[in-house]
Amino acid sequence: MNKVETEEDPFVEIGGEYLSIESLTRSSVRTMNMINFIDKMLEFYKNDCKQQGKEGIRKYDTLMHFYIYDDKKTYADIAELHVVNERTVRRDLKEAVHALSVLIFGIDGLRIQL
């Protein structure tokens, strides 16, 4: 019996556009590398905040509760959690985002503003 080999279609349709499987694979690898890098920078930032003491830990925790954790919290929620006012939460978040931006984007992170 003759076996007929069929060539797999190297393109996939997404949203009405055809993209190559190869380009999607490269894109997903780059995405995973970026996610791993961000995770490492978050871990580095966490350790740096621990060395700063209570205030540093609060800044890290504020960042995580506002942006990262699945159960997002508001300024008021975070203020209540840390027994501080909302202005402190906003300041902590701004400082945390600035520090993390520099870690992730380097010198270009200095240009990022809230």
Task: Characterise this structure.
This protein has 114 residues and is mainly alpha-helical. The chain has a domain at 39-111. It is built from 4 helices and 2 strands. It has helices at residues 21-52, 54-68, 75-82, 86-105, and strands spanning 11-14, 17-20. The protein has a two-stranded antiparallel sheet with strand order 1-2. A hairpin with a 2-residue loop joins β1 (11-14) and β2 (17-20). α1 (21-52) runs antiparallel to α2 (54-68), α1 packs across α4 (86-105) and α2 packs across α4 (86-105). The mean pLDDT is 84.
Annotation keywords:
mainly alpha, two-stranded antiparallel ribbon, 2 strands
Q: Residue ranges: pLDDT <50 for 5 or more in a row?
A: none
What oligomeric state best describes the polypeptide chains here?
single chain
Which whole number gives the mean pLDDT?
A: 84
| Helical stretch tally | 4
Biggest sheet strand line-up: 1-2
Share of β-strand residues: 5-15%
Let me know the number of strands.
Answer: 2
Q: Could you give a short account of the major beta sheet?
A: 2 strands, antiparallel
Query: Residue share in helices?
Result: 55-70%
What overall geometry do the principal axes of the alpha carbons give? elongated
Order of helices and strands: EEHHHH
The structure class reads: mainly alpha
Write the layout of secondary structure elements.
Elements: E1 11-14, E2 17-20, H1 21-52, H2 54-68, H3 75-82, H4 86-105
Antiparallel strand pairs: 1-2
